[in-house]
Amino acid sequence: MDHLDRLEAQSIFILREAYKKFGKLGMLWSIGKDSTVLLWLAKKAFFGHCPFPFIHVDTTNKIPEMIAFRDNVAKEYNLDLIVHTNEEALQAGMGPEKGRLVCCKALKTDGLQQVVTKYEFEGLILGIRRDEEGSRSKERVFSERNKDSEWDYTNQPPELWNQFKTDFPKGNHIRVHPILHWNEIDIWSYIGREKIPLVDLYFAKNGKRYRSLGCAPCTGQIDSNATTVEEIIEELKNTKQGERAGRAQDQEDSYAMQKLRKDGYM
């Protein structure tokens, strides 16, 4: 069993453990590389059939290629896909010009909470990684939120020797992070090994590509000539730039993601 096999086995164990321990679950799918790898792992964990719905919180600001990819994959894999938009916020004129953090909270955090409340999800499965961003390094595989999805990052249980806390007070909301222990190169190596289809925005065109995907007004490209998975892996081995360097909300506030995630952001 090699490194990728061990990562895959651990993630599949976490997915199955979550399905066994918790009630109604949903899986967040942002259409990016990490959540698409998580989708692939879920299909493997449950023998080609995903026993829970996939959720896309649509801000209406996504890059068009992302939406086209979402719809094609959902149809090909016969996914139970919930697409939700915070219509009230949009009708009130919400957008990035109001401030990146304000917009993210209204269209993503509040939008996600609306989905959790409407469909009565007890837990959500997300494709976040510890190495991606500082506040995510404070996470646990099984992470407790209160009934309003708020996260107390100062009070996290230890997860030693792969022993996970899965008993939580009734009414609290649980986030499950099956690929928390992966890093960016692991993700790309697994994509290459498994030949996982991705939106082509990750691959360079005219000397530019996206390393991290989000809303169009808040996501910048990086200089790159990497047009294949192998070239991306080689590029990552030599870069000194952070994965989210192109995300505008991170530049607006050094603690942007921690503030958003404390309030329930994905």
UniProtKB/TrEMBL annotation:
<dbReference type="InterPro" id="IPR002500">
    <property type="entry name" value="PAPS_reduct_dom"/>
</dbReference>
<keyword id="KW-0808">Transferase</keyword>
<feature type="domain" description="Phosphoadenosine phosphosulphate reductase">
    <location>
        <begin position="26"/>
        <end position="220"/>
    </location>
</feature>
<protein>
    <recommendedName>
        <fullName>Sulfate adenylyltransferase subunit 2</fullName>
        <ecNumber>2.7.7.4</ecNumber>
    </recommendedName>
</protein>
<keyword id="KW-0067">ATP-binding</keyword>
<keyword id="KW-0548">Nucleotidyltransferase</keyword>
<dbReference type="InterPro" id="IPR050128">
    <property type="entry name" value="Sulfate_adenylyltrnsfr_sub2"/>
</dbReference>
<dbReference type="GO" id="GO:0000103">
    <property type="term" value="P:sulfate assimilation"/>
</dbReference>
<comment type="similarity">
    <text>Belongs to the PAPS reductase family. CysD subfamily.</text>
</comment>
<keyword id="KW-0547">Nucleotide-binding</keyword>
<dbReference type="InterPro" id="IPR011784">
    <property type="entry name" value="SO4_adenylTrfase_ssu"/>
</dbReference>
<dbReference type="InterPro" id="IPR014729">
    <property type="entry name" value="Rossmann-like_a/b/a_fold"/>
</dbReference>
<dbReference type="GO" id="GO:0005524">
    <property type="term" value="F:ATP binding"/>
</dbReference>
<dbReference type="GO" id="GO:0004781">
    <property type="term" value="F:sulfate adenylyltransferase (ATP) activity"/>
</dbReference>
<dbReference type="Pfam" id="PF01507">
    <property type="entry name" value="PAPS_reduct"/>
</dbReference>
